[in-house]
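Re: [ENG-882] Designed sequences occasionally contain unexpected residues at chain ends

Forwarding the minimal case from QA. Structure tokens:
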């Protein structure tokens, strides 16, 4: 007793930890234990001090009486301490049913401060309503002016990760990845690593480049995915490959993206799409069972890309609710209502959806707001019609005959009290706008129940989409995706109509991943590049190694990649993937903790043969 209470390198002395705080149960009563962990909370009560001692296993209440209570001022919140004591049952009526250790307490015989902590700049508990301090509008030690709670959390991530919620999330992610490894291992897949210093692998994003010191002026690209390597592993005869792979894509991080993310990357030889879908369904069943204890049902339904875009306005439909989109172009062609009639005459589309009860729910202001939103998405505007007992209420009512209004009402299946929302315009813009409105309305009507899991395969994608310039087409997935065999002749005549042997897995409106059967024949791969308008020299320079490999006995093959971060977030019930990544970056791809990206030594740049133009502060 009475030992020094300031942390020191030998602070543990001869004390040996006997186990985790969160593991103690009534059966341990009478045991002498040595616990080590963090002070989560401390309170005095009539000469006795109560400390909640936390470690990875959980929290237990420690009671310090007499002389120990007198020294308990050293037990500052988040300090690391060791406690020796005896486990006892809490007195009648004082147990805490919210805690697994709630029926016991540890009566301290001695304690040591292994390392004292400064006052933490963010909260480390999950108590409801407690948000990182700067969000509550107070400045705290360590916060820069204007730093938001999120940035502060990332700056002190090692403290943020102490929160039970974050500990739970990362443990869940571990269990999920382990379930993936077990499942694929049992099915004969080999986990094989592929390089991170490589050449560009096109997945539709910008590359992160790494200058090569030994070859000034040359660069490695960090892989946007292991796509080419996994295909080469099939050529190499491995037949079944997987990897928990890190991918790097330099994109503007709108939505919930990260510049580096992890995927379950899979490739198989001698397979059809059905094989890959079945394997993936089994994987999802296993992951949900082992990481979340939830039984999901396979097989998952399938939907053609065209149908998804038509009925749901997106290739990742949320099937937890209806609010389906209807195409009414044919019904309004030649209509006296000019906005619709003229759009139809121009070859554009008129589509709409009915919001049950929307007539009473959506105010004029709501509708103006929705109109602005669809305009910002490139649609010309929004036409609304409220179907009420007294008739149709709409800014365009005077241009609509009651026949047309009735036709539209029926086409949308709108009941009395419904609000119909229409968009007329080019089909892409109309689909996107209505897809957006559909989600907005589902939110407003409270139709998105988190526990309702609607998996869906979207299949029969087009192989191409419009490219950056009119001469070029871009790959909808990536250029190694195989065309549907019967569409091959269209590659030279109507490439926009070629369908891909590709599939995406969608859950509740979120894309979990996607893949395809690949081109394993050199000639077909070359025709795809030609259809995209990629010059032959460029193909040879960038993908010559792949084309060569295809000539040395490349087996038919295909695969898929699934987003680990997204799946883990969904399993954890988190909205953002940042909550399941130990050290994520902000929306501007920065790390507030390490201050990356950071300036480097001028000497390093010189060695690399790199000169930076943006002024000395960038290189300083
Ligand atoms: N390489 C693709 C991606 O990262 C997945 C695949 O086609 O297997 O999205």
């Amino acid at each position: 007793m009475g030992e020094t209470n300031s942390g020191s390198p030998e602070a543990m002395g001869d004390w040996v930890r006997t186990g985790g705080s969160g593991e103690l149960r009534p059966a341990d009563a009478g045991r002498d234990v040595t616990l080590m962990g963090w002070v989560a909370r401390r309170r005095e009560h009539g000469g006795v001090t109560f400390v909640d001692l936390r470690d990875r296993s959980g929290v237990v209440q420690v009671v310090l009486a007499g002389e120990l209570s007198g020294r308990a001022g050293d037990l500052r919140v988040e300090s690391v301490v060791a406690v020796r004591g005896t486990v006892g049952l809490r007195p009648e009526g004082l147990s805490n049913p919210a805690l697994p250790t709630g029926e016991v307490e540890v009566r301290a015989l001695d304690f040591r401060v292994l390392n004292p902590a400064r006052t933490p700049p963010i909260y480390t508990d999950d108590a409801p309503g407690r948000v990182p301090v700067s969000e509550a509008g107070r400045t705290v030690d360590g916060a820069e002016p204007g730093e938001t709670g999120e940035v502060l959390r990332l700056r002190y991530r090692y403290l943020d990760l102490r929160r039970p919620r974050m500990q739970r999330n990362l443990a869940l992610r571990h269990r999920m990845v382990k379930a993936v490894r077990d499942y694929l291992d049992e099915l004969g897949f080999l986990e094989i690593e592929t390089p991170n210093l490589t050449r560009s692998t096109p997945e539709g994003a910008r590359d992160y480049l790494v200058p090569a010191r030994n070859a000034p002026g040359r660069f490695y690209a960090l892989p946007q995915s292991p796509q080419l390597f996994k295909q080469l592993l099939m050529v190499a005869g491995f037949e079944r490959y997987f990897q928990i792979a890190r991918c790097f894509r330099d994109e503007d991080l709108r939505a919930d993206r990260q510049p580096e993310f992890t995927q379950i990357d899979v490739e198989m030889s001698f397979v059809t799409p059905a094989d890959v879908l079945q394997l993936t369904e089994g994987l999802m069943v296993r992951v949900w069972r082992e990481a979340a204890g939830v039984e999901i049902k396979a097989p998952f339904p399938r939907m053609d890309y065209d149908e998804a875009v038509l009925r749901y306005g997106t290739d990742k439909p949320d099937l937890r609710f209806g609010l389906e989109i209807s195409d009414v172009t044919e019904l309004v062609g030649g209509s006296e209502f000019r906005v619709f009639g003229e759009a139809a005459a121009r070859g554009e589309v008129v589509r709409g959806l009915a919001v049950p009860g929307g007539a009473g729910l959506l105010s004029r202001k709501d509708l103006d707001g929705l109109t602005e939103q669809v305009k910002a998405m490139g649609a010309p505007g929004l036409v609304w019609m409220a179907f009420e007992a007294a008739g149709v209420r709409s800014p365009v009512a005077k241009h609509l005959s009651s026949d047309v209004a009735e036709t539209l009402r029926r086409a949308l299946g709108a009941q009395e009290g419904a609000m119909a929302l229409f968009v007329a315009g080019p089909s892409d813009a109309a689909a996107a706008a209505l897809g957006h409105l559909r989600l907005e309305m589902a939110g407003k009507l409270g139709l998105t129940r988190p526990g309702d899991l609607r998996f869906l395969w979207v299949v029969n994608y087009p192989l191409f989409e419009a490219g950056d310039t009119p001469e070029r087409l871009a790959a909808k997935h990536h250029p190694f995706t195989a065309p549907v065999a019967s569409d091959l002749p269209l590659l030279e005549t109507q490439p926009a109509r070629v369908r891909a042997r590709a599939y995406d897995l969608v859950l509740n409106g979120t894309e979990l991943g996607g893949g395809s059967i690949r081109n394993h024949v050199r000639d077909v791969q070359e025709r795809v590049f030609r259809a995209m308008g990629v010059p032959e020299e460029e193909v040879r320079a960038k993908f010559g190694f792949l084309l060569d490999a295809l000539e040395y006995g490349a087996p038919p093959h295909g695969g898929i990649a699934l987003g680990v971060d997204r799946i883990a977030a969904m399993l954890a019930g988190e909205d953002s993937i940042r909550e399941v990544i130990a050290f994520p970056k902000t929306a501007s791809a920065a790390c507030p903790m390490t201050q990356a990206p950071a300036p480097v030594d001028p000497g390093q740049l010189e060695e690399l043969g790199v000169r930076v133009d943006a002024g000395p502060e960038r290189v300083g």
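QA comment: On inspection the terminal residues look reasonable. The pocket of aspartic acid is lined by residues 203, 225, 227, 477-478, 514-516, 559-561 (CB under 6 Å). Proposing we downgrade this to a documentation issue.
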